[in-house]
Amino acid sequence: RSMSSVTIPPPACMLRPLEAPYRYLFGPGPSNVPPRILAAGGRPIIGHLHPEMYEIMNDIKRGIQYAFQTENNMTIAMSGSGHAAMECAVFNTVEPGESVLVAINGIWGERVAEIAERMGASVHTMVKTPGGYFTNKEIEEAIAKYKPVLFFLTHGESSAGLCHPVDGIGDICRKHNCLFLVDTVASLGAAPIFMDKQKIDILYSGSQKALNAPPGTAPISFNDRACQKMFNRKVKPVSYLFDMTHLSNYWGCDGKPARVYHHTGPVSSFFALRESLAILAEKGLEESWRKHKEVAAYLYKGLEDLGLKLFIPDKDMRLPSVTTIAIPEGYDWRALLTYIMKHHQMEMTGGLGPSIGMVMRIGLMGYNCEKANADMALHALADALKNCKKSKA
Ligand code: PMP
């Protein structure tokens, strides 16, 4: 027996073909990926440092600038999911010991607070139960009190189904010399956001929601105020992979003549992301926002006709991409969702983090945002309500 003979045999599962079912992804993401984007991701790959790839990355940058409504040069896509953008934003703009203020009204604020805590920031939070939101007065008072270098707010709170107002907060942050960081992972393309006009200093999103690309890339943009702060640090950011000094060079944003190797970008995912941004550009932001609002309103009506209660009472505060339903009395939400998956091959989900046990969530995003899909979701829900009724002993 040679020393090189394997002792671990090939696993039986690997000798069977890949099986991935067709599913209606009507949860909070990932959303179904349309054939055109799948095809883009399936093209033969090229080198991540080939000039053609730089062109594709430049296109992605322009596509993100449009989607974010920003002229920021420092606009890139992370090689990683939404969390990569969350960590990139915090790691680069905050130094250990600095004060950070996080608005928590669902899981995303909780996550950012933990990320900031882990890198040694002094974290302060303002907390509301899921569905709650913050007035500009409350925000200004907290900023004046804690003097943070960074204030975080979630625009599309997907765990609660709330779309938080953003107007005026950028001005407050500027007045108090604080950077304004906004999460639009669940809202980009579904609800209006204007990075430059709303004076947002750092904005990020994700690929797998209304953009309909596969999960795994995340647009992010920094304005000059944010660049001033992050490129004048005393200590290097804790992450090498997410260091914007390197990423800005990789994305051709640092004005240097050559891009040098930092990490190998996910070429296929960038192809898909480019295609998804192209579809948004062709369709137009206003049309995309209008469509999400229209289909969401249609869904609200159908849910109310089924006797269900929307979790966010104020229509204008609802996130058009992810609708939250209050769990109907007498029902086990897990049983309803399991029934819908089993009998309708359809994903809807429960709550997340603090909203677990409070809501069920239906996401109709981008390509999935059609009245016909709302009808299918309503039909599946009606069927589940009929068949999962808990006996009230
Ligand atoms: N923020 C929000 C608002 C989200 O909805 C999500 C994804 N559900 C994330 C951040 C995290 O993104 P990812 O799962 O791609 O890391």
From TrEMBL:
UniProt catalytic activity: glyoxylate + L-alanine = glycine + pyruvate; L-serine + pyruvate = 3-hydroxypyruvate + L-alanine
Molecular functions per Gene Ontology: alanine-glyoxylate transaminase activity; L-serine-pyruvate transaminase activity
Entry's Gene Ontology cellular component terms: peroxisome
Enzymatic class: transferase
CDD domains: AGAT_like
GO biological process, one term: glycine biosynthetic process, by transamination of glyoxylate
Stretches assigned to the Aminotransferase class V domain: 24-370
Residues involved in substrate binding: 361
Stored InterPro entries: Aminotrans_V_dom, Aminotrans_V_PyrdxlP_BS, PyrdxlP-dep_Trfase, PyrdxlP-dep_Trfase_major, PyrdxlP-dep_Trfase_small, SP_NH2Trfase/AEP_transaminase
E.C. code: 2.6.1.44, 2.6.1.51
Record PTM N6-(pyridoxal phosphate)lysine, positions in chain: 209
Keyword tags: Aminotransferase, Pyridoxal phosphate, Transferase
Cofactor(s) the protein needs: pyridoxal 5'-phosphate
Family the UniProt entry places it in: Belongs to the class-V pyridoxal-phosphate-dependent aminotransferase family.
Assembly and oligomerization: Homodimer.
Protein name: Alanine--glyoxylate aminotransferase
Lineage: Eukaryota, Metazoa, Chordata, Craniata, Vertebrata
